[in-house]
Design brief:
- By secondary structure, the protein is mainly alpha-helical.
- It has one domain.
- Helix content is 84%, strand content 0%.
- It has helices at 6-32, 36-65, 71-95, 102-127.
- The longest helix is centred in the middle third of the chain and has 30 residues, at 36-65.
- The chain starts with 5 loop residues before the first helix and ends with a helix.
């Protein structure tokens, strides 16, 4: 059984907690300002971003466990994931236009959260 290294697991957990808190705050703000639909799709985008990050971790673990890791297989996996996430986001944006655009907002927000949370330990290490 493959396990995610502790620092990576902790960073993902922190990203997930921050995303949930921001999602709840976004839903409350969206409800108060009459944009609950956009906020709900934003939460779905956060969920989609978290699912993508989790799939990335599993894909990297699977490839690194191989005797001969294949860069081509990793690239195919990245392409398939990006195609799936993009297709879902575009479909929601088109079907539920304009509120469905909140999905892209949630995806972007999760990527920012994940990048910041993931880079803070590296920056702390560099300062030592």
């Amino acid at each position: 059984m493959l396990t995610v290294p502790g620092a990576t697991r902790e960073a993902f957990r922190t990203s997930l907690i921050v995303a949930v808190v921001l999602g709840v705050l976004g839903l409350v703000a969206g409800y108060l300002f009459g944009a609950a639909g956009i906020a709900a799709f934003g939460c779905f985008g956060l969920l989609l971003g978290a699912a993508n990050a989790l799939m990335v971790q599993r894909s990297v673990l699977r490839q690194s466990a191989e005797d001969l890791p294949s860069k081509a297989a990793l690239v195919r996996g990245v392409g398939a994931r990006l195609a799936l996430v993009t297709a879902v986001s575009v479909a929601l944006a088109l079907i539920f236009f304009p509120t469905g655009l909140g999905t892209f907002l949630g995806l972007a927000l999760f990527q920012v959260i994940n990048t910041i949370v993931g880079s803070v330990p590296a920056l702390k290490e560099l300062r030592k």
